[in-house]
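Researcher: Next entry in the queue.
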Amino acid sequence: MEKQIYLDHASTTPMRPEVLDAMLPFMKEQYGNPSGVYKLARKARAAVDESRDQVAEILGAESREIIFTAGGSEADNLAVKGAAFANKRRGNHIIVSAIEHPAVLDTAKQLENYGFSVTYLPVNDSGLVSLDALAKAITSKTILVSIMHANNEIGTIQPIGEIGILLREKSIPFHTDAVQTVGHIPVNVDELGVDLLSLSAHKFYGPRGVGALYVRRGTRIEPLINGGGQERQRRAGTENVAGIVGLAAALRMSVEEMDSTSKRLLLLRERLIDGIMQSIPNVRLNGHRTHRLPENVNLCFEFIEGESLLLNLDMQGVAASSGSACTSGSLEPSHVLLALGLPHEIAHGSLRLTLGKGTTQEDVDKTIEVLPGIVHRLRQMSPLYDEKAVSPIGQ
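Model: Structure for this entry, 395 residues:
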């Protein structure tokens, strides 16, 4: 059987065997409810507390500042809605970037129905937010800014530390969606200057269905889920002990390997970008060329449609994505690519290739080998394609 080349790590990652080993005892014999007082419950509580300590230490936070959630989307919702409703007496203005994950964008749009005013901050053609534009967008009623650390589609890394300094001077709560960065590049809440930070375990080889929200001490948020005293009254519900243990274990191992993994993936990323752009004409690299995640490659191929490209790659044994996994069922072009200024017809031809721990040079070379033929065949079938109008290879 031919090897499946998996290049969709930004969507989800395979769970490490060691993580499953750490989780299994809490799915079997150590099944106690952490809220109980008996021995079985106390062991579960100790596991949650130890995991919280580990996550906090890695982020440069205090243990009391970590709230465990059911994933990154819940963490984003809790941050944006929680901070908005907690601060509504101060004002009603929220600022988010135009390329946020739907967990932030759709939440902001929903808040407009509750009387909040939202500014959707534009980005440049590399996907970067302008600090000047942000400063000009702030009003006396601004109560929250949410700018993602790195974009899930194009991999562009935002100047979060500089934004944090600006917002700290104005005493405006600052949230960053760090789902794509935690476990992949250094993340320290004080260095970033954030008050709220979201993360998700399955993006760094942990289990699905568990995430966390960092909430700086003194930052006010309203809970989304009521009905119990868990997570210091901020998130009701019996804790997912096994998932929390898995999150902490996966994060610890990812951080330990971060330097070596990032260096290796950066070399593979550059090999993949150069190989594709040198062998296929009329290709655009999306996102910033250097200020991007080491594992992210996002390209647009003119004259073809992304879904056909994905299906043909799959037949060649390559699993990839056309953008965010959360919106892959939509026929609409990526809101991220449109925000970069790309026309609809080019944005439709997008391909996201995201590398991971198991990606090899052979995987990259195989992708470079099969992609030109697929693109050529699809272009031949396109009514928009004019071979004479195609730019020379590499341009």
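Model: The chain has a mean pLDDT of 94.
Researcher: Noted, moving on.
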